[in-house]
Design a protein that fits this description.
The protein contains 18 helices and two strands. It is mostly helical. The chain has one domain (2-98, 118-423). It has a two-stranded antiparallel sheet. Helix 1 crosses helix 2, helix 10 (204-213) packs across helix 11 and helix 15 (341-368) packs antiparallel against helix 17 (399-414). Mean pLDDT is 85; it is low at 87-117.
Length: 442
């Protein structure tokens, strides 16, 4: 199939293949706790949510799915987070095969412009970080669950591993029906989960830059500077906004001691960035908290990692463009560097396409259901940004609306630009340009 030789088209095809395989496995009777075949839409929704590392669910993970089903889900979000093409390239490296140009290009498409270093060294870093971080977080979680939460060693290991892999891949799936609400007062559970989410939400190019240059700000690339500083700013914004808005809310932070309030506000400033775990009842949030979550989810995390959203760099490129226009400056940039026209166009395209998809999806679901508009908007933003947080309406959305959520999760994971390019014809440069003429704006 000549069309799939193009790596930009190959990536969506591989993700679709993983979703199809996951749907097939989850449709088997052995995958459910009752031993009956799951409905096709339920299996498809769960498989897409896992491969897209989202975490939205239409059935309760620990009660509906059997051990086989839960392991299948774990494998799916590990594969989805790690990247289909990244895994394939890694297997080629382990088998001693070299990297051809097409494989390098495909890896770069999936991980979004891994410019520094050879693909092989990048993939070695990805594999090393995956093994080390997931292993350490699983060890801490399992030990804590065994010692402090009265689980048997085997049970603690299972829950610890599942949550560690889910957190590292920003998947948001949990083996508990209430996510991590049972650990509201346990920093030894919430802390490691936050660490894994923040680390992988930075993106692997940032990790590689820090590995090469340490914490020397001057040697960092512009991408790393924007991602790290932007992440810190957004985490602080989320923490303060949630703490202030929910401080006296009896459904969330209200009944808690000050220490627990600070811990859970910090936890929920991290989760909307694309993780999807919740230690508080999201359905009980005040409207202003939901508004803050809309913004945090839409922006997401860093590029070329397991995070979703339009990405931190995209948001700050657009912010810099607006700021330069307000100041009457010709060039847009930050940290004494200017952006090229191609980067500016790509950032604007990603944001506009994302907003259009969310708006259209929200409008459609609102037209076929009686659900509250703010809850539908929260659901669609969460799906597109592959976050997984929900106000609790996922299972109540009509079947056609759930298909829309499935499409949003897929597009959000693969990327709006990648999908648009995959569906387009081969790019051809024009040998001419039209005359320039300006229009009145605003």
């Amino acid at each position: 199939m000549p069309g799939f030789r193009n790596p930009i088209r190959l990536i969506p095809a591989l993700f679709l293949g993983a979703i199809a395989l996951g749907t097939l496995l989850l449709s088997l009777p052995v995958a459910t706790s009752e031993g009956t075949s799951a409905p096709f839409l339920t299996a498809l929704f769960t498989s897409t949510s896992a491969v897209a590392v989202t975490g939205l669910i239409v059935v309760d993970t620990p009660t509906y799915w059997s051990a086989f089903g839960q392991v299948t889900i774990l494998v799916l979000f590990q594969v989805g987070g790690f990247g289909i093409m990244t895994a394939a390239t890694l297997f080629g490296l382990m088998a001693g095969r070299g990297f051809g140009l097409r494989q390098r290009m495909a890896t770069q498409v999936e991980r979004s412009r891994l410019e520094s270093g050879d693909a092989a060294s990048v993939l070695k870093l990805v594999l090393a970080i995956t093994i080390i971080v997931e292993g350490l977080v699983a060890l801490v979680l399992a030990a804590r669950m065994w010692i402090a939460h009265e689980m048997s060693p085997g049970e603690a290991v299972w829950h610890g591993v599942f949550h560690a892999v889910s957190a590292f891949n920003n998947a948001g799936f949990s083996t508990h029906s209430d996510s991590v609400m049972g650990y509201q007062n346990d920093a030894w559970i919430l802390g490691p989960i936050m660490f894994a989410v923040i680390l992988t939400a930075l993106g692997f190019p940032v990790m590689q830059d820090i590995r090469a240059n340490g914490f020397n700000w001057r040697k960092w690339s512009l991408h790393t500077k924007i991602t790290v500083s932007g992440t810190v700013a957004l985490l602080l914004f989320g923490f303060v906004s949630i703490l202030v808005a929910e401080w006296n809310n009896p459904a969330t932070l209200g009944p808690m001691a000050i220490g627990a309030k600070l811990l859970n506000a910090a936890f929920h400033s991290v989760m909307p960035r694309t993780a999807g775990f919740n230690s508080l009842d999201v359905g009980g949030f005040h409207d202003e908290t939901l508004m803050a979550n809309y913004l945090l989810m839409f922006i997401g995390g860093g590029s070329a990692g397991t995070a979703g959203g339009i990405k931190v760099t995209t948001f700050f490129v657009i912010f810099a463009i607006v700021l330069s226009e307000v100041r009457g400056r010709r060039d847009a940039g930050i940290f004494n560097r200017r952006f090229g026209p191609a980067v500016e166009r790509q950032a604007l395209s990603v944001a506009v396409m994302a907003a259009a998809l969310i708006l259209a999806s929200t409008t459609y679901i609102a037209s076929i259901s009686e659900l509250a508009l703010q809850d539908i908007l929260f659901e669609t933003v969460s799906a597109f940004a592959t976050v997984g947080l929900s106000t609790g309406i996922t299972a109540d959305i009509p079947p056609s609306g759930q298909l829309v959520i499935i499409a949003l999760m897929f597009v959000g994971r693969v990327g709006t630009i990648t999908v648009a390019t995959a569906l387009a014809l081969e790019a051809r440069d024009r040998t001419y340009r039209y005359p320039e003429e300006n229009v009145i704006v605003g």
